[in-house]
Specification:
alpha/beta, five-stranded mixed sheet, Pilus assembly protein PilM, disordered N terminus, PilM, 27% strand
């Protein structure tokens, strides 16, 4: 059904926008006018954007092609259907989806959703001089499992040229069986899967839209979930680093509760034990800063600012420890910023909102 994940595509400058860009407002890598600010993409009627954090669905539904008229739904699922974005019980998931589709009259709606964060592979690959941007995807298709080896045999993937680098490309991939395990329940529930995306890319779109990420600066975005941190480094060169880092802790320490339309995480028991578990990924981020500056860029570039987001219940503790350990400015996403996109959006909807800024559908 699908043969690729769509990568993040920024809109090109229109003639009018080009005239508004000052001569010195250039991309430091390509020396060309910097891309226009992210805008909300054209939307279709009858579509759902679905994210699956914890054991629940966050659904953005649109009966009309107008973002302002969309509706946000938070729907808890029966226990153990989802875990870390993976479908654990496909039959039960399909049953609950089908009941929702019937109840809310979503039959034949198009669905955009995300692959599990943990399943995403990010890799820099090289390609021959005679391969163009237009033929790059076909080249990678032919070379997978031949000269390009992944840790899984069958994959959904997408590839894009690396900005400022000749004959290098960024490859995103996820196992085919993981993707199909997610997509089939939507089909069986009489929905139409249309887009399969990567949360880290969707989050970047939202941060760009809100001007939290700006040109001429290198950012490390840390999305802290209760059980993991997703680390992305982004600059004018594009995405330069992407890693999922698990948090090693006793799951009984963190409890999830549902307060109306909101999912909340709370630490139960010994807070110090969970705080201790968070120190390891903070140390990992320190190591990544050094790796980025000295191994990747040989001292010519470094991370200049952090953006910290996420639903981790000890986010304030994390921010303070990061400040102490790394002495870099930290930006935090606020509910007010998200409400500027739509009044129903809050901080936890940062990935969901980014799907509204995608370009073409699959």
């Amino acid at each position: 059904m699908f043969n690729r994940l769509k990568q993040m595509k920024w809109p090109k400058l229109s003639k009018q926008n080009k005239e508004e860009v000052e001569e010195n407002e250039t991309n430091v890598v390509t020396n060309e006018p910097f891309i226009a600010p992210i805008t909300l993409a054209h939307q279709k009627k009858k579509q759902l954007i679905i994210e699956m954090p914890g054991n629940m669905l966050m659904v953005w539904s649109m009966a009309q092609a107008d973002v302002a008229k969309g509706t946000l739904h938070t729907i808890p699922l029966s226990s153990d259907i989802l875990k870390e974005g993976y479908v654990q019980d496909e039959f039960a998931f399909t049953e609950q989806l089908a009941a929702l589709v019937k109840e809310r009259k979503w039959r034949n709606y198009e669905v955009s959703t995300f692959v599990p964060d943990k399943s995403v592979l990010y890799r820099i690959i090289e390609y021959p001089e005679d391969v163009t941007e237009e033929t790059l995807y076909d080249y990678v298709s032919l070379e997978l499992n031949q000269t390009i080896h992944l840790p899984f045999e069958d994959s959904y993937f997408d590839v894009q040229p690396k900005v400022g680098s000749d004959h290098e490309a960024i490859l995103f991939a996820t196992p085919s069986d993981t993707a199909m395990n997610m997509l089939m329940p939507f089909e069986d529930a009489k929905l139409k899967p249309a887009v399969l995306d990567i949360r880290a890319l969707s989050i970047l779109r939202t941060l760009r839209y809100l001007n939290i990420i700006r040109r001429r600066k290198t950012y490390l975005i840390a999305e802290w979930q209760p059980n993991a941190v997703i680390i992305t480094i982004y600059s004018d060169r594009g995405i330069e680093f992407l890693r999922y880092h698990s948090i090693d802790y006793d799951e009984a320490l963190v409890k999830v509760t549902y307060n109306g339309e909101k999912q909340q995480y709370e630490v139960e028991g010994e807070v110090a034990a969970y705080e201790g578990a968070l120190l390891d990924p903070i140390f990992e981020i320190q190591q990544i800063l050094g790796f980025y500056e000295f191994s990747i860029h040989k001292g010519a570039a470094r991370v200049e600012e952090f953006v910290v987001i996420g639903t981790n219940p000890l986010l304030s503790f994390i921010v303070e420890r990061m400040k102490d350990a790394m002495q870099l400015p930290i930006q935090l996403l606020t509910d007010e910023q998200m409400e500027s996109i739509h009044p129903q959006f809050k901080k936890e909807h940062v990935a969901l909102a980014g799907m509204l800024m995608r370009g073409e559908q699959l």
